[in-house]
Task: structure prediction
Amino acid sequence: MFRFKQFAIQQDKCAMKVCTDSCLFGAWVANEMENEKSIHRILDIGTGTGLLALMLAQKSRASLMAIDIDGNAALQAQENFKASIWSNRLTAQHLSLQNYHPQQPFDLIICNPPFFENDLLSPDVNKNTAKHQGVLKLEELFMFIAQALSREGIAAILMPDNLSQKTREIAGLHQLFCFKEMKVRQSPQHAFFRTMLLLSHKKNERLISEMCIKDAEGHYTPEFISLLKDYYLHL
Result:
């Protein structure tokens, strides 16, 4: 169990466990979107435990659809949604992106997609599905987003830093352009390991910023605390 101030995440059956970078990603996107009045419909692709959808529900009044190709993950997300105080706005379905055909566009699409495409596969098939690009290709992801995102909508993507340029290039082929990029590292002594991207249909200047999760002494940085303080019980 992963306990937040407003909800607890049950994750016993789910292949994709709650991790710090996912929490940071959800908090960063929620913070960016908090004052966006035009976001009424949100889609969480590959929801896992439902963490990202729950974090966005806490900071918005939008309705949220979450899908996952893994049946156990979708079931776990459903249970977590039902246990939350935002259950009337949250829906989870066991569904692959390739078989999902929404009737209306989304104002925000968020995804922590499969990655580590060139790394060694795990013996655990569920972990391979969650972490590797064997099920969902970036080309498929951005083709879907380009069609399902509203004209003024925003897509939020979390990627390994070494794949961020490739991600922007593939998104650009589908007329999706990065306008904000946050590069993340564990501490000042570490290299960047994640990049959080915001994309839209409009081609604007890309604003790049950086943050560390911990400082040189191993304490959480003020930036990290500011983003996560509304979620963590103890920070």
